[in-house]
Automatic annotation (TrEMBL):
Protein name: Metal-dependent hydrolase
Keywords: Hydrolase, Membrane, Transmembrane, Transmembrane helix
Positions of transmembrane segments: 7-26
Keyword Electron transport part of the UniProt annotation: no
Species annotation: Flammeovirga pectinis
GO molecular function: hydrolase activity
Length: 332
């Protein structure tokens, strides 16, 4: 009997040890952190845009997983290829100056090791692009069951594709959720603000691509307050545009995104009286019920020419993209 107990205990210790080893291996990164912020040139020979208008799309592409995003479904490689073909076709119709993307994969297993940033940047002939990694793990065991749908090797983040020269690029981590246990937070992504400085003619413009916390309300509000303060400080020196998935519907209790509507120095693609109308909802794409995606700008420097929620993109992602054309005012 004692021998059986010893064997059971030994087997238990071995199993626990293997689980611990797997955990520390799985949460380790694929890339050096110094490589988490990069600028890539696609068509650097392309003449820079010198117009006073900026056309912008902000799009959480959900790694092109459509409505399967974060569900226990493993789409086929052909599914992703079709979604890439579809999204490129839609992008080519708009030919914007700046394309800000969230939840874009840089070669992770869940999207069959395709560097979506590289494919989109080259296919659309952008001058250059900035990328920021926000999720880098050897193995992410999510969705939890069955194991065949695990994300596996994770390499994902945010990116901005630009037809303007990119003069600066910075990856800034936003505040983390503190209420989750260690094993959860160790596997969780970083929430980011990606900052680039571009040159529009002779005018420098600061452009932000952000993706705030989705699940913890207090953390999200804290992040949005930080972003608003940063926006206002920089807008005293130069024009500012901030776009992205704010994960904050205006109808939420204490909705963080409404803080951007409380200051006349900040303008929005969608005026406050039009918030959360049927034509402004962006999520989910099978039946949109929330407005999570926004484009903001400094009112001292820009005015809105036109804007829209691009529902024609369909269910390539679980979000619809938002589009805006801004005109630079003559700065006295």
């Amino acid at each position: 009997m004692k021998q059986i107990i010893r064997k059971v205990l030994l087997a238990t210790f071995i199993i626990i040890g293997l689980i611990v080893l797997f955990f520390f291996w799985a949460k380790s990164p694929n890339w050096d952190k110094n490589d988490y912020a990069q600028i890539r040139n696609f068509r650097i020979d392309q003449k820079a845009v010198s117009d006073s208008t900026l056309s912008i799309i902000s799009y959480n592409i959900g790694y092109l997983s459509g409505m399967t995003n974060n569900t226990s479904v493993r789409p086929t490689k052909e599914f992703y290829q079709k979604n890439m073909t579809d999204v490129l076709s839609h992008f080519k119709k708009y030919k914007v100056d700046l394309l800000a993307l969230q939840e874009i994969d840089f070669g992770g297993s869940r999207s069959y090791k395709v560097d979506q940033f590289d494919v989109i940047g080259n296919a659309l002939d952008f001058r250059s692009g900035a990328m920021s990694v926000n999720w880098d793990k050897k193995y992410v065991p999510f969705p939890y069951f069955p194991p065949t749908v695990h994300f596996g090797k994770m390499l994902s983040g945010q990116a901005v594709l630009s037809n303007y020269p990119i003069e600066e690029h910075e990856r800034v981590e936003l505040s983390r959720v503190r209420s989750q246990p260690y094993y959860y937070s160790s596997m969780y992504l970083d929430r980011l603000a990606e900052r680039i400085k571009i040159k529009v003619g002779e005018q420098e413009v600061m452009f932000f691509n952000v993706h705030t916390e989705a699940f913890d309300h207090n953390t999200r509000v804290k992040q949005i307050e930080f972003l608003k303060d940063w926006f206002l400080r920089i807008s005293e020196k130069m024009p500012v545009v901030m776009v992205g998935d704010f994960n904050s519907d205006p109808r939420y209790d204490n909705a963080g995104v409404l803080k951007f509507y409380e200051d006349d120095r900040i303008g929005a693609m969608c005026k406050k009286e039009n918030l959360a109308k049927a034509s402004t909802l962006t999520y989910p794409t099978d039946k949109a019920i929330e407005q999570l995606d926004f484009i903001f700008f400094s009112t001292a420097h820009f005015e809105v020419v036109e804007w829209d929620v691009l529902e024609e993109f369909g269910q390539v992602s679980d979000h619809f993209p938002v589009y805006t054309k801004l005109r630079l005012k003559k700065i006295k």
